[in-house]
Amino acid sequence: MKRLRILSVLILAACSLFAQAPARAPFQYVWGTAYHVLPGTHNNESGYFSLCEGLDGTIYIGTAKYNENAYLVAFDPWKETQRVVIDTNRVCGLTAKGYAAQSKIHTRNFVGQSGKIYVGSKQGYRSEGDTSEYPGGYVMSYDPRTGVAENLGMPYPTQGVIDVVANEKRKLLYVVTCEDQHWMLGDIETRKYRELGPILMPYATTLIDREGRAHAITRDFQIATHDPVSDTVIVRDIVVGRKKFARPGGTGYAIGCWALAPDGKTAYMTMISYPDLYAIDLSSKGKFVKAINCGKMIDGKNPDSRGSLCIHPDGKVYALWRVDNTTGFGSGYLHHLVRYDPKKRKMEDLGVIAVKNPDFFNFKPGPDGKVPPWSHGYHTLPDGTLTPLYVHMAMIATYDGTLYATFLAPFTLFRIDDYKLPQKPIGISEPTGSARAYFRFVLDACDAVESNLAEIERQAEIVADRHINGGLIGFAPVTYQGFQDELWGRSGGMVNSGFDRPFKQNRTPEEKALDVSLLGWQTKPIVKNEPDQIKQLRTGGMYFIGFGPKSLPELADRVQLCDAWFDTYVCSDTGIVHFTDSNVGGRGTHLVNALNGWAFTAELVSALTRRGKMPTMWKSYAYEDGPAYGEKYLFKKQFHDDLAAPIAPIQKGELARQFLDRIRYHVRAFERTQMPAVEKAVDLICAEMKKGRKTIVASMGHMPWTYVGKYEDAKWCIPLDLHSNIPNQVENYIKKTPDRALVLRLGYCGMDPETREIFEKKKQRVILISAENERKGWDVPQNLYGFIDMIYAFGDACVTIEGYPIRILPPSGIMQIVAYEAVNTEVLSRLAVK
Known about the structure:
alpha+beta; Methylamine Dehydrogenase, Chain H; Rossmann fold; nine-stranded mixed beta sheet; eight-stranded mixed beta sheet; 43 strands; globular
């Protein structure tokens, strides 16, 4: 009996434990990390379809601040921080409130080939008693290369903008309006719009196929196609099998969401309330557009999918579908992640969305006992899992396969990492591994410079005081290494830098005693009496700031003589990338010096603005008026007295961080978009090596002469400087290079007509490293053997100061290094395994 009583107690205890244990979900979970979208950019925890990935991996989310304003928010996936990049009222010069306000960015954000983000604004909802009228929505763009947001005009008065895409090559904008869905064609340059004709379905979007034709779905469920070459529009039926496609029956929302497959011709489409997935062949010839029904994406009651259909880089189609929770495990709704594999023609329910970090938002009631407003969009399942309840609004698949979605109440950005593509190791055994290793070095260097901003700011304060009181900023006595050339006379740099460029004649001895010299070394010094020269200049009061690898023994005496020193930290005077033959390649001291030098310049400018001064800065000579702009100030003005209004004081660290963030953007975007072009160039160079020939590297610019062909790259290249406006360089190039040679042109912006003529006359096979050029005749030639885009915007400089007429701080010198070393390290990597 005693044993039976003990057994009974154990059974009761076990039953009690089972009763307390959480129930097990009858479905799989798809776990992700939730981020509350930047508070203050929305007022009802709301946003819409506005979600995209920039070329560098930054995520952009549009918000709705009803009756007030709308914002585009950038989410940094590396730092997990957010910031506003478009303030609609500010960009468009608006102050209207109520129904007249631009309350939403509702467009599916479009990323142009340039990397610009295109969005549009639209109205909210009229409140009781509000008699204001909505004027119409605006198309806007944000350029991550420069941080500049622009107003591209109002396509249709009184109508909001529900969709915008850009054909940048033809400078065209395709816009869909809301509420009446007019299909508009705009000119990016003139910002004028005209109607294309067909009225589209609600929330319609435009797709541009691989031929450059634009397609949209009409209100009659047909495909309207605009051919920009002939500027004609045709409207055709969609035929599924042998049956004309028509609106599905029922009372659901027959609003299409579609996405273009990687082949550039297949559009996958589904509808908000109807889970059938269609594959539409936009390249169809004839009187109708062919389509097939791929099957239902999900079974369930009251299906709902909003703006979530997307194409993963694995080629599969992903979407979110909300259905009624009829499982008996909790109540309400469940959001499923669903996938379709076109190769296997198979649908797969991957599971229900679940939040890894339920504390991302404080759902708890406040002191008044009330829960936070607009926080009703999530619920907890019986096992304690937090999951979205009501509405998802968008989903995208990024470059690396990460999925991002948005949910409402609270407005949430949700990241799913489980379907990322397998990450290739960074190493020389992998294709492009050497270049990727160099990119990691550059990003680490940006971090190292940013971590030392306090010292950069301190030195900038010292130099600002000396400069205001008459001291020049120059580079004596070291003039043979890249640092000085990088900072001297560059677009976005200070005009009167250099001891041969005084802003004032007949300076007093007291003013000369305040001079500052910036000295940079990227490799061993070659002038033996430099220390004696520095000592002599110090006796006159000159202040010295050194830049370079502090650990380099040959620089020890220079380090001691300088008042301050900015180390290269992450590299010495050796290669960055290690190869299989135990050799190294890819240099970095010159790059880190440039980062430090421009970060210092940024903080010097900031320090001067805090003293009520704005130094005169160079405008790029790529602009036709660039030389004349500089001539206004060179030898004449130290500071501006000709601006419409004084430049407001800039906080410490602000400009340097902006510059470093721009460099990060350029490097990441370069890695994601230009590696196929780099590989093509490497193939050509290695083919030349097999034939016993080296490649001519025809470089231009401030720094390349100090590093091209100076290190391990001498194995495969013959370096020659070529500036078409320097006669002896042109003569030397023509004399020394053979006809039909393979040439790697390390340029700046496009190609000038004179250089183009040289290459054509010699029938040379040219691979161009350059960036865009808007000037007529300076564009990128079409007959190249390869083109590697350095990404940066026309005009070079990448940081904007409010109220200042030009951008400052150039990325071009750094991106020349990045692009060249991408090619160089990949060539050396291949040579190492021969």
